[in-house]
Amino acid sequence: MNAAKAGRKNLFGEELLRHIARNNMDERMLAGKTGIRFHRIKRILHEPSYRPNLDTVLDIVDALRLDLVASMRFARLAGYHDTDKVLDGLLKRIRRESG
């Protein structure tokens, strides 16, 4: 691992830990609620270079029941800056749940 990667902060992982704590959950509970394997949750939390795919991020957003603003911030921290793509993914999930 090069020095730049070694010093990079895992802002997404840190934010995820805050939301897990706010929801009185732990990593295993999050894995169970999302269907994401536990080892992948650990990678997301502790490997700054690991970038989960957008569906994984949206599964986490659903499990944590984040509002739109928090969901967009969360996706941005995960490396998804294409607002239209994130909104499209969120809207598809809302339609699926209500329809």
Oligomerization category of the chains in this entry? single chain
- Main structural class: mainly alpha
Mean pLDDT: 88
The CATH superfamily is: lambda repressor-like DNA-binding domains
Q: What's the SSE pattern?
A: HHHHHHH
**Rough shape?**
globular
Q: How many domains make up the coordinates?
A: 1
Strand content: under 5%
Helix share, percent:
over 70%
Task: Please name the CATH architecture.
Answer: Orthogonal Bundle
Distance between the termini: 46 Å
What is the CA-based Rg, rounded? 14 Å
Q: Major sheet, described briefly?
A: none
Quickly name the level 1 CATH class. Mainly Alpha
Number of strands: 0
Low-confidence stretches: none
The number of helical segments is: 7
Stated plainly, the CATH topology is called 434 Repressor (Amino-terminal Domain)
List the helices and strands and how they pair.
Elements: H1 3-7, H2 11-22, H3 27-34, H4 38-46, H5 54-64, H6 68-77, H7 83-98
